[in-house]
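Quick one: Molybdopterin molybdenumtransferase from Arachnia propionica, structure tokens please.
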Amino acid sequence: MVGNMALFGRKKKAEPEVDEETKPILPPAPRADLNGLRRVADHVDYLLNLVHPLKPFGMAVIDAFDQVVCEDINSLINVPANSTSRVVGFAVRVSDLQDEDGKPVESLVLAKDVEHLGTGQAVRVGVGEAVPRGATAVLPEEFVEEKADRIEVVQAVAEGEYLRAAGEHLAIGERLLSKGDTLNERNIGMLAAAGIDRVLVRPKPRVVIVASGAELVEPGAELGHGESTDANSYLIAAAAKAVGATVFRVAVHGNDTQELKQAITDQLIRADLVISTTGGSREDYEAVAAAMSELGLVDAVEVAMSPGRTQTCGLIGEERVPMVMLPGNPVSAYVSFQVFVVPLLRRLMGADVHRRTVRAIAKGMLRSVKGQLHLLRGELIDDGRVRSVARVADPFAMAELNRSNALILLDERTEVVRPGEVVQCWVMGEF
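--- reply ---
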């Protein structure tokens, strides 16, 4: 028994079960290129891994403008709902226009206020007016001679002639919109015509723009020495609205890290995405980066792109809200928004994240640096036959953007584009 004493020894106290908390982590960082830079496509994919499409909900179709539908939508009714007349005339049954021997019938009884057309009857109808049930054609009034209670048939018609059949425009079950389509005023009208009053859509992403900078003041405020008006946050707020977001803008006048932390934390409750815009100083950038690091997980990287090489993103707060810090230079901020933030917003909306490019003929010499994506501001001209693009350059960044309607994409393999050669472009405002 001695050998088994251990089985009857003091009972070991059970260790309390502890739920291991899974600490949030950022996705694995993509591999850098030989120059230590992250490829643009890799960084876009990295950002897209931070978010998921927002949860869909039902909404009245009239309120769903610019929303992305989350399911295929089919017509619930026939349009027109009833067969209607294409002409002024008389609704008839074609079978009544011949007797049993196949000889033409000379006259039909003129009926009034009938829902179902009886044998040998005709009913007067106007253009677009519903014909009685049972009618299979319409005799134009030129084809008959109308008497007091009868019509004499001068010329017969074939089955379906001068008749618009029920469901001719839209049939029950016909596809109207597909999952991922964005509602506009025209297809909202189509949905209403098809008997649809509610749709399943994703909400517009809520974007909070946190503007900061020691030397920035609000538009309209008096400028002190060394100060400048904050234009970046207004530019990016408007750009986010153009994509389809609901935008809130908050200004922090300074670059104090703790003040920035508090401002960001206060906004997380209403944010699906936070975007930081700053002034151009190193201190402004470092203050936001420090606030982000204290609030969550941060990825700071240099991307093989010009302008906008330095990119910072992260997951902030307990809910791990995605946050992107844009460069301080207005052109760099705007280009970075188009390249990286637009796909994020489109993913949240449940829309296609792949942007459409157009081909255009370069009107002048364009130069780039091999190994990076270079996005030049351009003026795209389409005369209906040829699409051409010219580079726009201006020492005032906002003027340069204001004069541009496209971004010219020079890929990593391109060093020189000569006049007359074809380039790829993004049209601003088209996604």
